[in-house]
Amino acid sequence: MQTALQVVATIAIIVVAVGFIALVRGVLGGLGKIVKTSEDASHFLRIAEEELAGTASEVRSAVSDVDRLVLKATETVERIDNVAEIGERLMDGAFVASSVAKTVKSSTATLISVYEGVKQGIRILRGSQETKKGGTSNEQK
Fold first, then answer.
1. In Å, what is the CA distance from 71 to each residue of 57, 78, 94, 123?
2. Would the pLDDT of 137 be above 70?
3. pTM beyond 0.70
4. Looking at residue 10, what is its pLDDT?
5. Which of 3, 111, 139 lies closest to 11, judged by CA?
6. Which of 21, 88, 96, 136 could form a disulfide with 140 if both were Cys (CB 3.0 to 4.6 A apart)?
7. Hey, how many other C-beta atoms are within 10 angstroms of the C-beta on 130?
8. Distance CA 81, CA 8 (A)
9. CA–CA distance, 127 with 121 (Å, rounded to integer)
C-alpha cells in the first residue's frame, strides 16, 4: 500500500509540476507580450515626440507668418484709409474749386455785361455830344 501511495504522490507531484510549468510558461509568454508591447509603445512615443517637435516648429513659423501678414494687412488698411481721406479732401477741394469757378464765370459774365453796357452808354453819350456840336444828329446826316 505504501507503494501505491508513493505512486499516487509521485503522480500528483508530477501533475502539480506540469501545471506549475504550464503556468510559468503562460506567465512568461504574457510577460514577453507585455515587454514587446512596451517596446512598441516606447518606439511610438519616440517617433511621436520627434514628429510633434517638428510640427510645433512649423506651427510656430506659421503663426509668425500669420502675425506678419496681419501686421502688413493692418498697415495696408491704414494706408488705404489715408488715401481715402486724401481723396475726400481732394473731392472737397474740387467741389470748392468748382463752386469758385462757377462764381468767377458768373461774375465774369456779369462784368462783361456791365462792360458792354458802359461801352454802349459811352457810345450813346458820344453820339449825343456829336449831335450837340454839329447841330444835327447822325441820323440826319
1. 21, 11, 34, 76
2. no
3. no
4. 92
5. 3
6. 136
7. 13
8. 104
9. 10
Cα angle 115-116-117, degrees, rounded to a multiple of 5:
90
- Say if residues 137 and 131 touch (Cβ distance below 8 Å): yes
C-alpha cell of 10?
A: 509521485
Whether the Cβ atoms of residue 127 and residue 138 lie closer than 8 Å to each other: yes
The Cα 82–Cα 88 span in angstroms is 10
What is the model's pLDDT at position 11?
Answer: 93
Tell me the C-alpha distance between 74 and 137, whole Å.
85
- Grid cell at residue 106: 458768373
Q: What is the pLDDT of residue 43?
A: 92
CA atoms within 13 A on the CB side of 96: 6
Q: What are phi and psi of 36, to 5 degrees?
A: -60, -45
The DSSP letter of residue 1 is: -
pLDDT tens digits for range 5-28: 899 999 999 999 999 999 999 998
> Which stretches within 1-141 are classed as H helix?
2-134
d(CA 88, CA 91): 5
